[in-house]
Amino acid sequence: MMKLFSGRHKIIYHLSFWFVAYVCWIFIFRNGTLVLTHAITIQFCYLVFIAGNYYFNLLYNIPRYLNQKKYVLFGFYFIVGVIVASALRVPVSMLVSRYVFGISAPPPGFFYIFYNSFVNILFWLVIILAGHMIIERIRSQLYIEQIIKEKAANELNFLRAQFNPHFLFNSINSIYGHIDKSNKVARDMLLVFSEMLRYQLYECNVEQIELEREVNYLKNYISMQKSRMNEHITVDFRTSGVNGNVKVAPLLFITFVENAFKYVGYNEGKGNVVEMDLTYQNAALTFRVFNTKDNFIRTPEGSSGLGIANTQRRLELVYPGRHFLKINNTAEDFEVILTLYNL
User: Fold this and answer.
1) Mean pLDDT across the stretch 250-270?
2) Among positive and negative, which fits the CA dihedral 274, 227, 308, 195?
3) How far apart are CA 209 and CA 215, in angstroms?
4) 244: Cβ–Cβ under 8 A, 6 or more apart, which residues?
5) What DSSP designation does 6 have?
6) Residue 128 CB neighbours (<10 A)
7) Which residues contact 175 (CB under 8 A, 6 or more apart)?
8) Cβ distance 89 to 61 under 8 Å?
9) Confidence check: pLDDT of 209 > 80
10) What separation in angstroms does the CA of 153 have from each of 94, 164, 175, 202, 239?
11) Rounded to an integer, what distance in angstroms lies between the CA atom of residue 40 and that of residue 50?
12) Which residues contact 281 (CB under 8 A, 6 or more apart)?
């Protein structure tokens, strides 16, 4: 709910809206017997109570009752809010008339002021809330259409990409048969690679997959990378709390792991490390990847960052409001910490 006030631009937007509404009310409802200063004061009083009711409904009543299809409770609290605002405006109106405008004549009765306040607050509250809900409905529809288009594009790209892994998977089986049996390292690497392709091709066509299977995929990838690295690099992968009941989006972590192995330093006499930690606790999953790097090597422009940017976009689509991604990039090392909530 408090996202309504997050960001400076949203605060400016809300303040601008109420300022424009305030100015319009002043000149719409001013008449020949009401001087400008009186109109400014009266409409400001209305503005306070209308705005108060608007945010009460927007932040509490609508999310808690209307969005949950509890229409009777929503209507009840909607009317109660208007009644309370109208009742509070009665003494405010009397005090303003006497001490601000200096009117010595007896003010109109309680029920007269209350009735006028109730009608005005109710009318403008309905108009403003209706406008807000119409705008939000349009925005939601546009967002849904965007998601549908992106999903269709992703499915098309996946279908196009299926041919190459499938062809490669079949080719690997042929290559494996031609590798000399004495070359156990090469045969084992090819088997691991084949298993990784099988996972991508046949098991990742789902929205959620068991965390254990995703971890096994990462271990296969790490095993392949370790086999080609020299003794100057230390690789460590630790897991905690992983069980078969937890599910995640497939191939969500591999980009960060690939990035770590791609840019880890190879300096002799220096601690070159790739560290990965995956922890599941209290319905939250935290994945940390850390690697040292060569501070004297400049990364070519455009050679990295695209995979991470794509993963960030995917997180926004799959885990909206349920993830936190932190990236620490220094001259000496690179670290990614990703946390998924409510799994």
Assistant:
1) 85
2) negative
3) 11
4) 210, 211, 212
5) -
6) 19
7) 190
8) no
9) yes
10) 63, 18, 33, 20, 34
11) 15
12) 240, 241
- In our burial notation (b when 16+ CB lie closer than 10 A, e otherwise), range 240-270 reads eebeeebbbbbbbbbbbbbbbbebbbeeeee
Do the Cβ atoms of 241 and 281 come closer than 8 Å? yes
pLDDT above 50: residue 300: no
Q: What angle do CA 296, 301, 307 make, to 5 degrees?
A: 105
Burial 197-222 (b: 16+ CB within 10 A, else e): bebbbeeeeeeebbbebbbebbebbb
Q: What is the mean pLDDT of residues 130-139?
A: 89
Helix (H, G, I), strand (E, B) or coil at 109: coil
What DSSP character marks residue 299? Answer: P
In the chain, which ranges are continuous DSSP H helix? 8-29, 36-56, 71-95, 110-178, 184-198, 211-228, 254-263, 306-318
Name the residue among 83, 87, 79 with its Cα closest to residue 113: 87
For 101-119, write each residue's pLDDT tens digit. Answer: 555 555 677 788 888 888 8
Indicate the pLDDT class of residue 4, thresholds 50, 70 and 90: very low
pLDDT level of residue 160 (50, 70, 90 thresholds): low
CB 299 within 8 A of CB 262: no
Closest residue by Cα to residue 276 from 213, 197, 223: 223
Distance separating alpha carbons of residues 80 and 56, to the nearest angstrom = 11
Structural domains in the chain plus CATH codes = 2-149 (no CATH), 208-340 (3.30.565.10)
Structure tokens belonging to residue 339: 């946390």
Structure tokens at 236: 């460590």
Q: Give me the amino acid identity at 13.
A: Y
* pLDDT tens profile 186-197: 777 888 888 887
Collapsed DSSP state (helix, strand, coil) of residue 339: strand
The residue with greater pLDDT, 65 or 157, is: 65
